[in-house]
Amino acid sequence: MQETKQIQTKKEFEQFFNTHHADLVRYAYKFVQRTDVASDIVQEAFVKLWEGRRHILANISLKAYLYKVVYNLSLNHIEQLKLRARHHDSIYTDLMEMEMDYYKDEKSLLQEERLESIRSMLNELPKGCYEVIDLSRFQGLKNKEIAQKLDVPVRTIETRIYRCISKLKELVKRAV
Amino acid sequence: MKELNDIETIIIRSLDKTATEQELAVLHGWLKASAENKTHFYQIKDTWDAAGILSPDTANAWKQLNKQVDANKKLPRWIIETIKIAAVAVLVAVATYTVFKIPQKPPVEPAMAKVVVPNGSQSTVILADGTTVRLNSGSELVYPSQFNSDVRKVELTGEGYFKVKHNTAHPFIVSAGEIDVKVLGTEFNVMAYPDLERIETTLVEGSVALNKRGTANGHIVLKPGEKAVFENNELVVAPADIELETTWTQKGFYFQSTSFEELVSRLERWYDVDIIINDDDFVDITFTGKFRNKESIWQVLDVIKMTTPIDYKTKEGKIYITLINQ
């Protein structure tokens, strides 16, 4: 896909929104772990983009700008959480903060232009992988629920999913 | 298939959101142990996230957004102006920023925006040129929404850590109190809290020039690892302890022979509390110590108590610190 340089019309804005909205929400969700917060953050980022469209420098990619804004808003959300949890150490916010810190310099696969082809790599996984990944990642079942459905121990499901995701990770790494 | 080891089990449970708090604590420790561990885990999690379903309702979100954008259009002119200003600079402080247009400016000037970080929080601002400014508690930054003149000029009250985007053609100037810090592209810390009666600039990387406003020449150039202190109308260069000056950006404090009065005003800003001391009693008392900001104000006070003969109590929401006569 071509890098969008400028947005002038509402039509262009809508197109840009439709292209990037879902992955941006997934990107924000990665950090804030709540769908409502993630949606709000992305909404706010798009409002900023629209209101500021005449001021955003033409030489920066609007997509990169948007991801940066979403990153910053997510970071701010976590800082607020942390502030509220100041009196008791919270392992949850510590882990969130650590992940944010990692993505300060790293890009997520969600920012990849070729994300769709990455998703299609699921089909290249060994047999049995597709089944568990489908139940877990597409139908949103917990490992325990998958274990019940397939009538195998949870440990077996955990092992299978871990191995399948690791395999996918390697495939993606080679492809990117 | 080979069984998972302990950490692999915890990883898959953390992704499934079924890990216990103890398991997450183990994961946290393991991640902290090495960069390889982090890379391994975050690549796995990223693959998991990217393969994920979470299908947001884009059509509905667009409807909502459209409504919001149109509503902004129908607002009174001054509100639209305000929102425009808010939009041009990427503000991080969702709950804490206030943005307004400074009046009395000639219309050719770009609109000015202002971020106010209240006591008890911190915030990061990204300016239109890509420069990032980390603002400490109780600080303000005034900056133009766009940099379209020859210099990039911002005004700081309080404390900020600047990472300035390199641009030789457009020098970056931080005005803090009576001091102008001029830079091309570099990292440095400026501390200019009005109640401290001194302004400190610490250079981490690159080079900066300092000038007292109103004096044309006689500026001072800093080298990395040096700091300039403006106090009693004089600019003095001294070697700097970079860790000491920048620990706050990692959410901690580090005090070295800090006067008790300054320690108290820092704690007030950081924890958003009122602390009352009798200044005269504490004239000769200094404090050295390091905190990670994991501690509550009470834990901090208890640590101070271990090395300094003080006692504290609370009354009507204020903290009173007294010196114990020995």
UniProtKB/TrEMBL annotation, chain A:
A GO MF annotation of the entry reads: DNA binding
Give the RNA polymerase sigma-70 region domain ranges.
17-81
**Which keywords annotate this record?**
Sigma factor, Transcription, Transcription regulation
Read off the InterPro entries from this record. Answer: RNA_pol_sigma-70-like (IPR039425), RNA_pol_sigma-70_dom (IPR014284), RNA_pol_sigma70_bacteroid (IPR014327), RNA_pol_sigma70_r2 (IPR007627), RNA_pol_sigma70_r4_t2 (IPR013249), RNA_pol_sigma_r2 (IPR013325), RNA_pol_sigma_r3/r4-like (IPR013324), WH-like_DNA-bd_sf (IPR036388)
Domain of life according to the entry: Bacteria
Tagged with keyword Lipid biosynthesis:
no
Q: Which NCBIfam families match?
A: Sig70_bacteroi1, sigma70-ECF
Known PANTHER family for this protein?
RNA POLYMERASE ECF-TYPE SIGMA FACTO, RNA POLYMERASE SIGMA-70 FACTOR ECF SUBFAMILY
What is this protein's record name? Answer: RNA polymerase sigma-70 factor
State the organism named in the record. Carboxylicivirga sediminis
Automatic annotation (TrEMBL), chain B:
**InterPro entries noted in UniProt:** FecR (IPR006860), FecR_C (IPR032508), Ferrdict_sens_TM (IPR012373)
Q: Where is the signal peptide?
A: none
Q: Which domain of life is it from?
A: Bacteria
Q: Can you give the residue ranges of the FecR protein domain?
A: 114-208
Q: Which GO terms describe its molecular function?
A: sigma factor antagonist activity
The alphabetical list of record keywords is: Membrane, Transmembrane, Transmembrane helix
Record bears the keyword Protein biosynthesis: no
Residue ranges annotated for the Protein FecR C-terminal domain, each copy included: 253-321
| TM region positions | 82-100
PANTHER family linked: PERIPLASMIC SIGNAL SENSOR AND SIGMA FACTOR ACTIVATOR FECR-RELATED (PTHR30273), PROTEIN FECR (PTHR30273:SF2)
Query: Under which name does UniProt file this protein?
Result: DUF4974 domain-containing protein
Q: Which organism is it from?
A: Carboxylicivirga sediminis
